[in-house]
Amino acid sequence: MGSKGFKNGIGLMGATDSRHLPSPNETNFHPPLWRDALFWLAIGLTVFAVAPFLLPGYFWGANDARHHVYFLFEYDRLVQDGIWWPRWSPDFAFGYGYPFFNIYGPFSHFLGELFHYFLGFDFTDAVEAVFILSIVASAAAMYAFVRSWLGRPAALLAALAYTYAPYHLLNLYVRANLAESMAFVWLPLCLWTARQAVIRPAYRWVLGLAVSYAGLMVTSNLVIVLFTPLLAGYVLLLTLVHGEPGQEGQQGKVRAWLKKVIPPALGGLAGLGLSAAFWLPAFAERQYVRVDQWFDGRYAYRGHFVEWHQFFSPAWGFGASVPGPDDTISFQIGAALIVFSVLGVLFTWKTLARGRWEVLFFIVGALMAVFVTSVSATWLWELPIVGSVLQAAQFPWRWLVITTLCTSLLAALIGHWSVVTETQRLSLPLLTLASLLILSSYPYLRVEIREPAEGPVSLAALMRFQQSADEMTGSTAWVKEIPTWSPMADYYISQEQAGGPVQPVDTKLDYSIFDYETFGASSVAHSTISEEVFYYNGRETPQRLVFNHFYYPGWNAYLLDGEHGRRIQQLPVIPEETGTLGRMTVEVPPGSGYLLLIYEDTPPRTIGGALTIATIATLGVGGMLIAVMGHRRRRRIE
């Protein structure tokens, strides 16, 4: 059917029905969000999901609960040295260091640091505060998106379905994955701003999409890989459905479609530009870390497919994903989400009009995500190109984030049903449906509060956690054998056993190689990302200093003109050729002097930062030009 026939068909299906899907223009009658009573009701009803985080204590036994406390602990260690955009984590891998924040989205821990640094929250309270923020913000984002599409009653149901979806609660209370929980905020924001950019092209929507997509990138570079195909497909669908050729013929159609697709395309590109300071070095320098640790062994995807009965099982647990069907946690979609989605589609399908294509898109999205999660899709994960995209999720069940997003939107359709939408205000049917969504997941609204097995948060506790759990021991590509302990770990434990405060090491020099008669060195200054040493080399040949740092690009060495002096010569930093640790070594010339070892930007980091700054400047200039043009236009009209 041609475009004209397609649109005429839409008109016949529902244009004269009073219950048809709201058109873009109809959404203008909504009050601003801050004056929308149902919006504030949606926010208020998240209290049941927030409540478990208000209990005294912390849920140390949850899968990643300890990880995120120590991720924040490391972030704060770097902030103490004035580094608000960290890349190197000096205490991971038993103190040998790891470029954690160079390859892992830092945004959720940046938020945690704001709570800790400026408001005085301790590390566990700061992490819980970010979890709470993610719950409230994700409900608000989903409400805003669905209100612009299906109206206010549907928006309320979508926000609650999204908040109380079992997989969302699993991320909050069982997996305790802070980054993925915060990613739930950005997904509906991306859909909302992309949809508005297509339907009502305006600079604010391009900017909104850019910020939302960049926010998702710096929050979870795993989730963005799963979500981007869905977002791109959604923009393409909206372009085809809402494109309105100004003239007949193929050229007119193409121009109309280009006019619709260019704003969201610009928003997506601007989002990449805004986040280039993170994703460009993360992508370019990923080859320098050992990824086998996170994709092999117990992390291998082959052991984490979901059996079909697990999607519908009401079982819940606080264990972990294991190979086979006997997982001690739940991968259910949620009975309420399934029932609401099915009924919503059935009750509203005839009245959806143009929105029918969007509904069909999310149905297909939900089903495809369920399939690639299931054991039936094992063969798909083995394919060369498709498999590489799927494996970016690490675990097959992580694709349930897409299922949860799509089913929450489909569940909202029941809020578009005439029985519910007799009024755009709160009604008994609407309140009943909202209550059912909350009550369906009420048994899962709990956390297991435990005491920390490693003791209070400290460097010594971090070392014990890494040893007992074999976690946070990521290594760089030059490490042949992952260490299980270190001199730095010994130092921290000995301080704790002596009853004193556990202080950071004051040097990473390996003193065991010195003979102190003809060659030696001592530390002058030390921080999380630099160390200055005084060396003396009485031999006639260059001698090698060894640092207890894993080798990684970005570490540079310089000879200084006196203590704390200017840099006069750069020396090569070379991974050690003996042993299994791949530590950094620097050859110093005969004589004595001062050497600085410091972590700096590499070309990908510099280029990425420049792209981010250039994008910010471009968006700022574009916004000012549009504002000036709008002001002049208004003056001419007056």
Globally, the shape reads globular
Mean pLDDT: 91
Low-confidence sequence ranges:
1-28
Indicate the proportion of strand residues: 5-15%
Share of residues in helices? 40-55%
Topology:
Blueprint: H1 3-15, H2 37-44, H3 47-50, H4 65-79, H5 100-103, H6 107-119, H7 123-150, H8 152-163, H9 166-174, H10 178-199, H11 203-219, H12 223-242, H13 250-274, H14 276-284, H15 292-295, H16 335-348, H17 356-373, H18 378-381, H19 384-390, H20 400-411, H21 428-440, H22 459-469, H23 487-497, E1 519-526, E2 530-537, E3 543-550, E4 555-560, E5 567-571, E6 573-575, E7 583-588, E8 591-599, H24 603-637
Antiparallel strand pairs: 1-2, 2-8, 3-7, 4-5, 4-8, 6-7
Helix pairs in contact: 2-8, 4-6, 6-7, 7-8, 7-10, 8-20, 8-21, 10-11, 10-12, 10-13, 11-13, 12-13, 12-17, 13-24, 14-24, 16-20, 17-20, 22-23
Produce a short descriptive summary.
With 638 residues, the chain is of the alpha+beta class. It has helices spanning 3-15, 37-44, 47-50, 65-79, 100-103, 107-119, 123-150, 152-163, 166-174, 178-199, 203-219, 223-242, 250-274, 276-284, 292-295, 335-348, 356-373, 378-381, 384-390, 400-411, 428-440, 459-469, 487-497, 603-637; strands spanning 519-526, 530-537, 543-550, 555-560, 567-571, 573-575, 583-588, 591-599.
